[in-house]
Amino acid sequence: MPPSTDYIRHAARLARKLQMDAAMGGTPQPDADFYKALSKAFDEIAAGLELVAKAE
Questions:
Q1: CA-to-CA distance for 46 and 30, rounded, in angstroms?
Q2: What is the per-residue pLDDT for 1?
């Protein structure tokens, strides 16, 4: 079963939004949703790496 990537993609979208806000001259501030998605993304990355390590 491949690991889920939903939160990884969500964190990437939020990071791109922050980058675009900065490019438009604003001062982007990561909000609680960004940090929540980022922590979940790290959990998914870790789970995926553990799966790969077990398969080898």
A1: 23
A2: 66
Instruction: Classify residue 47: in a domain, yes or no.
Output: yes
Residue ranges of alpha helices (H) inside the chain are 6-23, 32-55
| Contact (CB, 8 A) for 28 and 21 | yes
Instruction: Give CA–CA dist 14/37, Å, rounded.
Output: 8
User: Domain containing 43: what range?
Assistant: 6-55
If one counts the domains in the chain, the total is 1
In contact, 7 and 37? CB cutoff 8 Å: yes
Confidence of residue 51 (pLDDT cuts 50, 70, 90): confident
